[in-house]
Backbone:
């Protein structure tokens, strides 16, 4: 299992040892850069420290919606605040992520329709794509899409890599063994992303405790869906970014192009799309 972490200032982690986290198996880290248009107080402190520990890093925007009588900044303002917080991206960084969820009482508290809520994420996506030239990652869940968004479809989100939340394990002692997933089904996919394997990251445990490097608080655990064979939407996503014929399967031409792509960037040339290769591929403009 390829293990990843995500955290924010609200988790209470003030003295994170990223080197210890890497030694414990972590390969990639996603940090909250913003809550709406407000910068996360821990982001500036941890962003460069994650890279110094040679972990693949990414940032996410927790997109705020109106909640009861509380208004929220326009999505364009939230995305612009994220861009300011991140600053220049570096080779090998993950694309920015927009977090689509509705804490508390769900979408009903926003006073907005499902279509209007989806429009907000599309507006944030537009600002990020205009700035970086690529599609952002979208964090959400099949439950949010079903219960809050009525399983609405949006073709515009199809190219956005998917980070899915589905808590396979309850909060508590961190689950780090790939064997724990031997009899676990993959997380279900929201309608805009199509086939059942079209996800890259699965957030499988929230508020995990006892993970090395986090002496003061909890951390969320994720696993990466590496690509090395098969067919489907993720294969087509990779082929478009490699510039090879889209054949819908990992064929010899795709493997050869992937090996060349990895070698040119000083990556491990194994024809496997893990977190680091994915991070480089995601910045290829199609």
Residues:
């Amino acid at each position: 299992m390829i293990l990843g972490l995500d955290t924010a200032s609200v988790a209470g982690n003030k003295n994170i040892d990223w080197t210890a986290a890497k030694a414990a198996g972590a390969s990639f880290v996603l940090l909250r850069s913003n809550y709406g248009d407000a910068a996360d107080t821990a982001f500036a402190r941890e962003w460069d420290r994650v890279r110094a520990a040679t972990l693949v890093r990414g940032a996410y925007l927790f997109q705020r919606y109106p909640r009861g009588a509380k208004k929220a900044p326009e999505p364009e303002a939230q995305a612009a605040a994220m861009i300011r917080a991140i600053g220049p991206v570096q080779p090998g960084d993950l694309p920015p992520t927009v977090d689509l969820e509705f804490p508390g009482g769900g979408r009903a508290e926003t006073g907005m329709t499902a279509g209007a809520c989806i429009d907000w994420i599309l507006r944030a996506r537009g600002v990020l794509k205009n700035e970086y030239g690529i599609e952002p990652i979208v964090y959400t869940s099949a439950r949010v899409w079903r219960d809050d968004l009525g399983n609405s479809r949006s073709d515009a989100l199809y190219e956005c890599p998917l980070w899915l939340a589905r808590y396979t394990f309850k909060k508590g002692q961190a689950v780090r063994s790939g064997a724990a997933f031997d009899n676990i089904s993959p997380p279900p996919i929201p309608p805009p992303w199509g086939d059942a394997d079209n996800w890259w990251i699965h957030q499988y445990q929230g508020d995990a405790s006892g993970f090395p490097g986090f002496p003061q608080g909890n951390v969320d655990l994720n696993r990466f869906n590496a690509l090395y064979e098969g067919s489907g939407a993720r294969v087509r996503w990779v082929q478009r970014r490699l510039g090879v014929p889209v054949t819908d399967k990992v064929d010899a031409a795709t493997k050869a192009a992937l090996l060349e792509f990895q070698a040119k960037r000083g990556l491990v040339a194994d024809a496997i799309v893990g977190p680091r290769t994915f991070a480089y591929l995601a910045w290829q403009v199609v």
